[in-house]
From TrEMBL, chains A, B:
Superkingdom: Bacteria
Any coiled-coil regions, as ranges: none
Start and end residues of each Gfo/Idh/MocA-like oxidoreductase N-terminal domain: 4-122
InterPro entries tied to this protein: Gfo/Idh/MocA-like_OxRdtase_N, Gfo/Idh/MocA_Oxidoreductase, GFO_IDH_MocA-like_dom, NAD(P)-bd_dom_sf
Start and end residues of each GFO/IDH/MocA-like oxidoreductase domain: 133-258
Native source organism of the sequence: Paenibacillus zeirhizosphaerae
Protein name per UniProt: Gfo/Idh/MocA family oxidoreductase
SUPFAM superfamilies (UniProt xref): Glyceraldehyde-3-phosphate dehydrogenase-like, C-terminal domain, NAD(P)-binding Rossmann-fold domains
Length: 387, 387
């Protein structure tokens, strides 16, 4: 194979952006087909994409066409798993937009469908290309920070106005997105939280507030507390209602603490690991000698969406290792599902999650939803500044 | 009255420091008596304090002496309320060290005893003299920040080694202190949390870990979540087990956010209050214009213990307003008691607190304590750098 032929299903906000990237910027990739049920989006494709790109309004026809080697799924979240399962059945490689899906039960079925196909399976976790989080992961996984003790992520700079929510009828509804800030804005942070530390909690207690700041039915404000097998704890705080908000991720360990904020990584490194100091110190109020270290981080946000597209293409062409394997999409989603479930049951949620219970309780919310927004129609927003 | 005559009961760590301050630094104050049951401490008093200072080994004799106008109570925490009640009965003014006590039921009795005596009642919340928190309170209470939405205090820089805990048999035991980091290190922050914002929660869900990092029976690691009547939420994270730790207090409101960290106050101020922006904005991803404002704060930590001593003295002599009225000691302690109770019951705790239940559950822990430390004897630590 000289070039990977890509078909995109879903050319709304993100799919449009990926279509243009694939046509212009990704070496070894070629856009050969798009599919969207919305006539407006197909008209856009007719006008803006080359004639060589086939246009489909029906997913069955799209999959049957064999016009591509790889399918990029950029539809609304709920459709990711079933469309991926279908793609694997047709023998395509699959790159799925984030989140992997809305509830882990469906995502688990997607992972099962992927297993043993010999096809590449990736997820658009473009923040994994960000040098800041790559370096943080390096410091934690290489043991520089020692055993992790506490993680505290305040990620409240996802400001969204009511007009944003009104720009699409599916937005911020149980039926349309299956959640709010956790499903739409935070999937990257929920992924990075466990990717940079290599740790998943054993249980979670979370406090979601639904429609607190906006006229929506899903969560727009969350505080979650997590406990880990090694005794570490974590806090994750997020909202779309605050401005300017904060994005500050602090990780502490036996050897000090690291803070990722404002694109910078600072490592307060203990000369002696804390447990060693404690075991030998005989005084009153002393503490271990600490060095403030500015950690060098490559500039910019990394290669982002194009980086993931290029990596996925290279994986197919040359066997390059995937930066964001699709199977890992379930991890961040598990955190998000657990936060909902803990709020709904007003109780702890232990992992592994009771996935059937979550699916049932989500369905209940969809069935009983009487929510109608002042729908401004499905407007395609300019997401060039989005993640 | 030209001078306020002070008697100090309890001349251990803090009492010693106050005795020296009163003798040397406080205008209009005079140290006339001390009381301590420990012969070592009385020997110290004989050697280091003027002969004019009466020394008592028995509280009854001390109170009966009428050798003072005001009593400063610097004994272990449990004794604060009963000793204060006794002092009020004798007609003395009372300045009590922090915390006000160990459980709010007893502290409420102290407040009742104070009411209507016409005597001054103060508490050693010396951090209220800190210009940083005074300015924060000013910005919040004057309305500059708008309606408060979120408070997030990471106060993990209270590092204490095992040798610290071993320096006193009473330290970090249910019977001796009635708690750990919440009772000994955090009373200032628990006070400032509600004093700077003027807000007490309606309910709390907390996660204390007991003896996690040290060989102690009380909590040395806490994450607490709080909800407020106006919908605001708060998180309070503390430990004595981390180095170097963090002291970062973030408060967000309708008009932006304020962060107090490293002795600096930064106010990210929105040009238009967020609710107003949201009501009129019609675009997609926009957010309110935000100005980063460095707020001027007077240098240093303020007048601290001496400031409280001076203010209390002036209140008696000239009717100066108390910066830290004793009756307010119950507020921070309520937060701390609620955090314990929520952990013990593994459930929400609504305020007002069930004070009898808390007292019962605390007593249970004292009765069932089988904890014996490697007691290094009761060493008097140098607390000159302590708060």
């Amino acid at each position: 194979m000289e070039k990977v032929r890509f078909g995109i299903i879903g050319i709304g906000n993100m799919g449009t952006s990926h279509a243009l990237s694939l046509s212009r910027h990704i070496q070894g990739a070629e856009l050969t087909a798009v599919c969207d049920a919305n006539p407006d989006r197909l008209r856009w494709a007719e006008e803006k994409l080359p004639d060589t790109v086939l246009k489909f309004s029906d997913a069955e026809d799209f999959y049957a066409s064999e016009a591509m080697d790889a399918v990029l799924i950029a539809t609304p979240h709920y459709d990711h798993p079933p469309l991926a399962v279908q793609a694997f059945r047709h023998g395509y490689h699959v790159l799925v937009e984030k989140p992997a899906g809305v509830y882990t039960k469906a995502v688990r079925e997607m992972n099962v469908a992927a297993a043993g196909t010999g096809r590449m399976f990736g997820i658009m976790y473009n923040q994994r290309t960000n040098p800041l989080y790559q370096k943080l992961r390096d410091l934690v996984l290489s043991g520089e920070l020692g055993e992790v003790r506490r993680m505290n992520w305040i990620i409240t700079n996802w400001y969204r106005s009511q007009s944003y929510y009104d720009s699409g009828g599916w937005r911020a509804t149980w039926a349309g997105e299956g959640g709010g800030v956790l499903l739409n804005q935070d999937p990257h942070q929920l992924d990075l939280w466990q990717w940079t530390t290599g740790m998943m909690p054993v249980r979670i207690r979370a406090f979601c507030q639904f429609g607190k700041y906006r006229n929506i039915e899903v969560e727009d404000d969350v505080t979650a507390y997590a406990e880990y097998e090694n005794g570490a704890t974590g806090v994750f705080i997020t909202t779309t209602g605050e401005a300017p908000g904060t994005n500050r991720f602090e990780v502490t360990g036996d050897r000090g603490k690291i803070v990722a904020e404002d694109g910078k990584l600072t490592f307060w490194r203990l000369r002696t690991p804390e447990p060693e100091f404690n075991a030998t110190y005989k005084g009153g109020f002393g503490s271990p000698e600490c060095w403030t270290c500015e950690i060098p981080v490559a500039g910019g946000d990394g290669s982002q969406h194009r980086g993931i597209l290029q990596n996925f293409t290279n994986a197919i062409l040359y066997g390059e290792k995937l930066l964001a394997p699709g199977e890992e999409g379930i991890l961040g989603l598990t955190l998000s599902n657990a936060m909902h479930l803990s709020t709904w049951t007003d109780d702890w949620v232990s992992l592994p999650l009771n996935e059937q219970l979550y699916a049932d309780m989500l369905n209940e919310r969809i069935r009983h939803s009487s929510f109608r927004k002042n729908d401004g129609g499905s407007v395609v927003l300019d997401v060039s500044g989005s993640h």
